[in-house]
Amino acid sequence: NGASAVPPQSKGSWTSFLKSIASFNGDLSSITAPPFILSTTSLVEYSSYWAEHPSVFVAPASEQDPAKRAMLVLKWFLSTLKQQYSSRNEKLGSEKKPLNPFLGELFLGRWEDDAGTTQLVSEQVSHHPPVTGYCIWNRKYGIRLQGYNAQKASFSNTINVKVFSFRKCYQIGHAIFHIDAFSEDYLITLPSLHIEGLITGSPYVELNKSSYIQSSSGYTARIDYSGKGWLSGKKNSFTASLYPEGREKEPIYTISGQWTGSFTICDAKSKKVVDNFDPNVTKTTQLIVAPVEQQDEMESRRAWQKVAQAISKGDMDTTSYEKSIIENQQRDMRKKEKDEGREWERRFFTRAETHPVFDALSKTIGESINDTSTNGIWMFDPEKAKNLRPPFRQQ
Ligand code: CLR
Fold first, then answer.
1. 17-50 pLDDT, tens per residue?
2. Is the ipTM of this complex over 0.95?
3. 152 lines ligand 1 (CB under 6 A)
4. Which residue's alpha carbon is nearest to atom 20 within ligand 1?
């Protein structure tokens, strides 16, 4: 069973929390978790995990060979997994429940390093269901990633000890990686995940099944996750291969390793190692976020400041008091919009009828758009991006 990470005074509330989620079905943001498992970070910030290694992010732009370029996009995707799914365990000791973003919540920032300036815009485009839209771009290299996502939890009703460690979570949505110089698009699908370690009070994420990257240049990458490490015996293992569209049996590159550890990229024919990546060696670049006093009212860290302070102090009365101020404000805004017969205008995104790039690339990998689960198809709107505050404006 292992040692419990649940603080003694929270044992009771953790048990009832586990019971409540055993029969739970639906939207993860609506579950009430005990204080010790609450994070002071909003989910809208998670979009930044896509580019914490800006030079890996922009590398495909400088590669002339289309197959190698597709391999570099795959390498970048794999390089983000540790940040996306395991960095919180490292920092906080376990996975925590993020703050549930309100409609219109923003998270803006930029990275400055060898790759020049890489900019981030993340916006909560829907509250029911929760959907986050994001766009990350580097002008110098002509690279842009845009996407939106929601999560759906599926739960079994059987109250069984084993079941607690197998909360399934599907990610809905996708990302599109674009390279200006080659007018290339890469459609990225997202892995589904489990929350493990719930019984001992130290939840962590494990990835399962497969995800794909389909390029407009005719390459497909398939990544197979095996949390239990049935191949290598190590946790967080995966294997990936890059092949010409429709010819899975003829891979060009194969990759294997751990997404929390190192992985190697091999030429599939010669079996020679051509590249590798180790997230524990490759430093991340710190995202630059404006000081809270200079932030817009809708910016995440400013809006949640008081809630976050109360959570850090373990002061639950103030936490719920401050949270209810935000909730009431939001309720009033929704009511006003309803009365006036309009909808909240997203700051950087626009709802679209169709998604031409998605439609062109999704068939080979068997993906389809689920616009009811994401309250629409969300497109980053460069015109609206002119709203960015001066230091962050697109130069
Ligand atoms: C959000 C989008 C990111 C990748 C990512 C990483 C971890 C996921 C998160 C997404 C969604 C919310 C999530 C989280 C892990 C735990 C958390 C599923 C997909 C849930 C809501 C927390 C449950 C509460 C307990 C563990 C106490 O790009």
1. 888 777 666 677 777 888 899 999 999 999 999 9
2. yes
3. no
4. 97
